[in-house]
Design goal:
With 581 residues, the protein is α/β, with parallel strands linked by helices. The protein has 2 domains: 2-313, ABC transporter transmembrane region fold (Up-down Bundle); 335-547 and 562-573, P-loop containing nucleotide triphosphate hydrolases (Rossmann fold). It is 63% helix and 10% strand. The protein has 20 helices and 12 strands. It has helices at residues 2-6, 15-47, 52-101, 104-110, 112-134, 136-154, 156-203, 205-210, 214-240, 242-266, 272-313, 376-382, 406-412, 427-431, 440-449, 453-457, 476-489, 506-519, 555-561, 563-573; strands at 335-342, 353-360, 365-370, 391-396, 399-400, 413-416, 425-426, 466-467, 494-498, 524-528, 540-545, 548-553. The strands form 3 sheets. Strands 6-9-10-3-11-12 form a 6-stranded mixed β-sheet, with helices on both faces. Strands 2-1-4-5 form a 4-stranded antiparallel β-sheet, covered by helices on one side. The chain has a two-stranded antiparallel sheet with strand order 7-8. The radius of gyration is 35 Å and the shape is elongated.
Length: 581
């Protein structure tokens, strides 16, 4: 409950609804509790004296009280739902905002599938408990206490039977709640698993079909689904066992009231209406107790969800702005690495980059080559400060990137990822994503430089063509060209192309390089490439091997001095033919 209470401040803006709703429920409970006593009056007075007037007047009063109770119940429902839904919306928005603020390192640790579950299912669990609290969790304790009190007033001797049953039921309830929390925590983790599988399958459906792995993926999903089913059954079964136990206690109580009350009636100690009212209050008391038990198991599940939500809310970004971080940059585009060391895990892990020293001057085109896993993309991701270096310094325009506000830095650095991501919406909206105020002329120029204008205009709607989710209605090469155009619209001082022309043919790639060389003379270009034809004309080529800079120079220099570079060159272009693989 402590974690759920910690999230209660999200209810503060709706304190009026949260305060009035329980009072309306109190009104409904009071009206409900009055009904058995009025029924007792009808039986013991009206029917016993054959006075139809008493029966009709008391019956009319019962109807009137029922209507008042209905007004209270409806009002409670309306206000409770409004408060709970608004609470959930605010919590979900705050959680989403927190996720947006997290660094790449945080997101790597949390995982996409888990974050989706926390934003959706976990928030829903907490939201439902708030609604239940304002409605049923207010009603049930009030009914429990009120029924117990009214039964004592109605028949103190029969109330002793109820007081004997309540501790037994509470013991059973305590046992159920003890095990429910751990079981429902496991259920939420199983939901994480199934969300991860579904997300991966939907995102890579073409890969699955291409490799004819549908059966394998069905088995993966079936495994995650069976795990969720088994954990859910185990949790719900534990909770469900409480219902029959309580019903047995209720039936034993009714039998006891009828038995002892019947004996008392024959001796003249009680009246029939008293017994009827006592049975009604007994049933209401134990049913309220059952509702409290069921609701507490829901609270237990929400507690597990609250732990997962607060874990995200308590997460602090690994990459943060310094208090005196610079808000402006010169925009020259100079990049320097001084003894940079980086690893994705703890400090004890093998570094991806170790002691890297580089200097990239403004306006230069610098290419980065190396085998898979040599740290090419990692180096590219350090420049916009997606991650912080473990040791050394990475400088942009003479400033350590840790001394620059992240937004300021990233407005100067545009990066085109290995796997371009396009959003659902028009082509124009995607191209303006990093700079919404860009003019049509700027968008068209960027598309022309990226060799995307012609294929865009081949669509009936041109730049207003709607792209499907992840850009499913354009080819891989077209996606890459649109991603390059999107980066160019930002007018960056530093442009990073992380193997971003791998799906583009060599001729088009050469056109893109020529256009960038001609129109972006002042822009520093860092090109991460697998294909050596991409980097032949670069001002400087950096070869990475074993987490270090193995060689650096122009093509003509490296072909003479670097065996590694020469091996790469000969494997791809040694026969004079450009390799397209």
């Amino acid at each position: 409950m402590q974690l759920i209470r910690r999230l209660l401040p999200y209810l503060r803006p709706y304190w009026r609804e949260a305060l009035i709703a329980p009072f309306l429920m109190l009104l409904e409970v009071a009206m409900d509790l009055a009904q058995p006593r009025l029924m007792q009056h009808i039986v013991d007075v009206g029917i016993a004296q054959l006075d139809m007037g008493i029966v009709l007047r008391t019956g009319a009063l019962m109807i009137g009280l029922a209507l008042v109770g209905m007004i209270g119940g409806v009002g409670n429902c309306v206000l409770g739902v409004r408060a709970a839904q608004s609470y959930g919306a605010d919590l979900r928005e705050d959680l989403y905002r927190k996720i947006q603020s997290l660094s790449f390192g945080n997101l790597d640790a949390l995982g996409t599938g888990e974050l989706v579950t926390r934003l959706t299912n976990d928030v829903t669990q907490i939201q439902e408990v708030v609604m239940i609290t304002l409605r049923i969790l207010v009603r049930s304790p009030l009914m429990l206490v009120g029924s117990l009190t009214m039964m004592i007033i109605t028949s103190p001797r029969l109330a002793l039977l109820l007081l004997a049953l309540v501790p037994i039921v509470l013991v059973g309830l305590t046992i159920v709640i003890k095990y429910a929390h751990a079981l429902f925590t496991a259920v939420q983790k199983a939901i994480d698993g199934i969300n991860t599988v579904v997300q991966e399958n939907l995102a890579s459906v073409r890969v699955i079909k291409a490799f004819v792995r549908q059966n394998h993926e069905r088995k993966r999903f079936a495994g995650a689904n069976e795990d969720l089913t088994a954990r859910s059954i185990r949790a719900e079964r534990t909770v469900a066992l409480f219902g029959p136990f309580l019903m047995m206690s209720l039936n034993l109580g009714i039998v006891g009231v009828i038995w002892f009350g019947g004996v008392d009636v024959t001796r003249g100690g009680s009246q029939v209406g008293q017994i009827m009212a006592s049975i009604n209050y007994l049933t209401t008391t134990l049913m309220s107790l059952m509702m409290v038990g069921m609701l507490l198991t829901r609270v237990s599940r929400a507690q597990a969800s609250a732990e997962r939500v607060t874990e995200v809310l308590d997460s602090e970004p690994v990459v943060v702005d310094a208090p005196e971080a610079v808000a402006e940059l010169s925009g020259r585009g100079r990049v320097a690495l001084e003894g940079v060391v980086f690893s994705y895990g703890s400090d004890g892990e093998e570094p991806v980059l170790a002691g890297v020293d580089l200097a990239i001057e403004p306006g230069q085109t610098v290419a980065i080559l190396g085998a898979t896993g040599s740290g090419k993309s990692t180096l590219a991701h350090l420049i916009p400060r997606f991650y912080d270096v473990k040791a050394g310094r990475l400088m942009v325009d003479g400033l350590d990137v840790r001394e620059i506000q992240q937004q300021t830095l990233r407005r100067q650095v545009a990066i085109v990822m290995q796997e371009p991501f396009l959003f659902s919406g028009t082509i124009a909206e995607n191209l303006r994503y990093g700079r919404p105020e860009a003019t049509d002329e700027e968008v068209i120029l960027a598309a022309k430089l990226a060799q995307a204008h012609d294929f865009i205009m081949s669509f009936p709607d041109g730049y207003d063509t709607l792209l499907g989710q992840r850009g499913v209605n354009v080819s891989g090469g077209q996606k890459q060209r649109l991603a390059i155009a999107r980066a160019l619209v930002m007018r960056p001082a530093i442009l990073i192309l992380d193997d971003s022309t791998s799906s583009v043919d060599v001729e088009t790639e050469a056109l893109i390089q020529g256009a960038l060389e001609e129109h972006l003379k002042d822009c520093t270009r860092i090109v991460v490439a697998q294909r050596i034809s991409t980097v032949l004309n670069a001002d400087s080529i950096i070869v990475l091997e074993g987490a270090r800079v193995a060689a650096q120079g122009t093509h003509s220099e490296l072909i003479q001095s670097s065996p590694i570079y020469r091996e790469i060159y000969e494997s791809q272009l040694g026969n004079g033919v450009v390799a397209h693989g």
